[in-house]
Specification:
single chain, 425 residues, alpha/beta, Lyase, Ornithine Decarboxylase, Chain A, domain 1, TIM Barrel, nine-stranded mixed sheet, binds pyridoxal-5'-phosphate
Length: 425
């Protein structure tokens, strides 16, 4: 479900005509729907209601403090991967006792800050990191809880750069090594190693990797408990699919239908770290058409957003549905999909203004006829859109807008040229 829908040929975000936003705020601009974000969050909550579940929204998907605040108010915890993200969550009023902290390269400073804040779990990726955490906790006179990240060696059908659950990645330790880590560090008196963390990757299209992952991990938990280790929580990470195409991935209820039966009566608190399944299709990127260029047999639609604003198509070969925000009724898309076709569409490449061949949003895509000045929506841009944006080519970062019913709020201003050089003085 999302609340970016056409009414009489005009695209609305909830009850706001997106053209109004573009006119007032300029383009490119990210637009998020509050009701969509909360709907996704509440559906996950409902799906796992039978278990003791903590949902830790993954900040790196979309970290604007206004979005973190509304999730915190809905009861969400947070999955962070840096000290900067910890700072964001605290500024947004997040509850530190609902924070889990992952990442293979936590610095001493970051670990100290998280100890100070009193987060729920450090998700530990190696013995060396655990030793460092124990040392720093001792120094600070603090105790902490940790989850060991275990690699269940699950092959995951996604892009090669975003698979993390197979044996030879830099993430976590394998199952045999996990046994040794618990044997060596399981009762150190400072850091309570009492949970297992797995995170398989991102963008999965079926529930199978999760079901298989849990099936591989439960015997490990049983065996650790047999050896006297108290295991209180299982963190399943994130990576649940998002509908880049209409109804293309399992819903929260689908995942839960496979996972809840396996986890019921196990005496485990379940932690989930969803990112894109909450925010991806709760956001769009609006961009204005600058030029139409015929180059040989190809027709290029050159827009004012670039790969610096949204890098996913270039980095992951990601598909984003793109459509004009104002169309004749016959061109109102019935669904969002790679091969969406209708009478009268034209085949184009949608590209940005940056001097790189990789600066594109779509290749050989059928779109309604587009002219200079037309506003386009790049859909499902709420996750890993703004958070991966850069100022490459000295392009100021775009603004972010949050729509709530029939009002919208600028939740981040567009950068200025002065901002671009502010730290160089
Ligand atoms: C990136 C990440 C997530 C979130 O992944 P999504 O695909 O956005 O759901 C969760 N946990 C960890 C450890 C991550 O690195």
């Amino acid at each position: 479900m999302d609340l970016f829908q056409y009414k009489k040929g005009l695209l609305f975000a909830e009850n706001v005509d997106v053209d109004t936003i573009a006119q007032q705020v300029g383009t490119p601009v990210y637009v998020y729907s509050k009701a969509t974000i909360l709907d996704h969050f509440k559906k996950i909550q409902a799906a796992y209601a039978q278990l003791d579940t903590l949902i830790c929204y993954s900040v790196k998907a979309c970290g604007n403090i206004h979005i973190l605040r509304l999730l915190a108010e809905a009861g969400s915890g947070f999955d962070i991967v840096s000290g900067g993200e910890l700072y964001r969550v605290m500024q947004a009023g997040g509850d530190p006792s609902k924070i889990v902290y992952a990442g293979v390269g936590k610095t001493d400073r970051e670990i100290k800050e998280a100890l100070e804040a009193g987060i729920a779990y450090f998700n530990i990726e190696s013995e060396a990191e655990l030793e460092t955490l124990i040392g720093l906790a001792k120094q600070a006179g603090k105790t902490a809880k940790a989850a060991l990240r275990v690699n269940p060696d699950i092959v995951y059908d996604t892009h090669k750069h975003i698979t993390t659950g197979v044996k030879e990645t830099k993430f976590g330790v394998d199952i045999e090594r996990a046994q040794r880590v618990f044997a060596q560090y399981g009762s150190n008196g400072v850091v309570d190693l009492c949970a297992i963390h797995i995170h398989l990757g991102s963008g999965g299209k079926t529930i199978d990797p999760y079901v298989n992952g849990v099936r591989k991990i439960l015997p490990l938990i049983d065996s650790l408990r047999d050896k006297g280790h108290r295991i209180e929580a299982l963190d399943l990470g994130g990576g649940y699919g998002a509908d880049y195409e209409t109804d293309s991935v399992p819903s929260a209820a689908d995942y839960a239908s496979g996972l809840v039966p396996l986890l019921k009566d196990k005496g485990l608190r379940l932690i989930l770290e969803p990112g894109k399944s909450i925010v991806a299709n709760a956001g769009i990127l609006l961009t204005r058409t600058l030029y139409i260029k015929q180059g040989g047999r190809k027709r290029f639609v050159i827009v004012d957003a670039g790969m610096n604003d949204l890098i996913r198509p270039c980095l992951y070969e990601a598909f984003h549905f793109i459509w004009p925000t104002a169309v004749e009724q016959r061109f109102v898309p019935q669904k969002r999909s790679k091969d969406y076709a209708a009478e009268g569409l034209e085949r184009v490449d949608v590209v940005g203004p940056i001097c790189e061949g990789t600066d594109f949003f779509a290749k050989d895509r059928l779109l309604p006829p587009v002219r200079r000045g037309d506003l386009l929506a790049i859909f499902t841009a709420g996750a890993y859109g703004y958070t991966m944006a850069s100022t490459y080519n000295a392009r100021p970062l775009p603004p972010e807008v949050l729509v709530d019913g029939d009002t919208f709020t600028l939740i981040r201003k567009r950068q200025t040229y002065e901002d671009l050089i502010a730290h160089e003085k």
